[in-house]
Design brief:
Layout (H helix, E strand, L loop, with lengths): L5 E7 L8 H9 L5 E6 L4 E7 L5 H10 L8 H21 L14 H4 L7 H6 L1
Antiparallel strand pairs: 1-3, 2-3
C-alpha cells in the first residue's frame, strides 16, 4: 500500500472582530506551492489540504502567524496542532522527507498581509 502525502487539516483562528479572517487566510494560502485547497468553514475556521512533499503543518502555522493571523490557543486547539505535527513527523520519516528539503514557493507578499512593519525571520528563509 502506497503512503499518501496529502493531508487535510482544520485550522482554527483566534476569535476577533474580523468576520473575513478565514477567507483572507485562505486567499493567502491558495497561492502557495503544495497547497491543494484552502476554504473557509466559517469566520474563524478553514479546511486546508496540502502535500507533505512541499509543506508541513508547522510551516503553515508559522506562515499564518507571519501574515498576521492569530491561531486559536485554546487547549483543544493546541492539542490538535501537536497531534498534527506528531503524525506528520512520523509520516515524513516513513516517506523519508526532511524539513530542510522543503522550500516555500509562493506569490504572497508579506508586506501586503502582515500587520507588522518588518517581516519576521521566516520570510528571509522562503526567498
Amino acid at each position: 500500500m502506497e503512503e499518501t502525502c496529502i493531508r487535510t487539516r482544520r485550522v482554527c483562528l483566534a476569535r476577533n472582530e474580523d468576520r473575513q479572517q478565514a477567507a483572507r487566510a485562505c486567499a493567502s494560502l491558495n497561492g502557495i506551492q503544495g497547497v491543494i485547497s484552502a476554504r473557509p468553514l466559517n469566520d474563524r475556521q478553514l479546511m486546508l489540504s496540502y502535500s507533505l512533499e512541499y509543506l508541513s503543518f508547522e510551516l503553515i502555522e508559522a506562515l499564518l502567524r507571519e501574515l498576521g493571523f492569530y491561531l486559536d490557543n485554546s487547549l483543544p486547539a493546541i492539542i490538535r496542532r501537536t497531534v498534527y505535527q506528531y503524525l506528520e513527523d512520523n509520516a515524513r520519516e516513513r516517506l523519508r522527507l526532511q524539513r530542510e528539503e522543503q522550500r516555500l514557493a509562493c506569490s504572497v507578499d508579506p508586506e501586503r498581509h502582515s500587520n507588522s512593519e518588518q517581516p519576521e525571520k521566516y520570510w528571509s528563509d522562503y526567498h
